Amino acid sequence: MVNHLLLRAGIVEHRYHRGPRPIEREPDEWTIRELAEEIGMPEPTLYTWVQQGRLPCRLVETGGKPAKLVHADAASIAALKEIRAVPAPWHRRPPVLPSTRNLRDPLIFYFSTLGKCFGTRQAHA
Fold first, then answer.
1. Contact assessment for residue 39 and residue 3, using Cβ atoms and an 8 Å cutoff
2. pTM, whole model, 2 decimals?
3. Of 28, 24, 25, 26, nearest to 75 (Cα)?
4. Listed residue (28, 40, 41) closest to 74, CA to CA
5. Average pLDDT, stretch 73-94?
């Protein structure tokens, strides 16, 4: 607040800070954020793949903080887009098969499955 008052009074001049230096890149290099936007994938997923060594990268100093540049050519990007298109394993469910059980009465079905879950025996008539 004091600095703002000094600026308004003209006692102190505003200091302009330099912007970040541009990153020197080799061909087919992306930042994790740029590659995530290109593929349509979350940044944490790509970051994890970089940490695991699944994607090649290099560390570059950009003035204040280091940046990771991921090497991904057109073929790599196409492969990553294909991986992204496949649903996660927990979303891939087998098709529903027609059941031979009588599912008209939900209580009978519910109690018949409870016995299987808890290992109790059911009396067969």
1. no
2. 0.55
3. 28
4. 28
5. 82
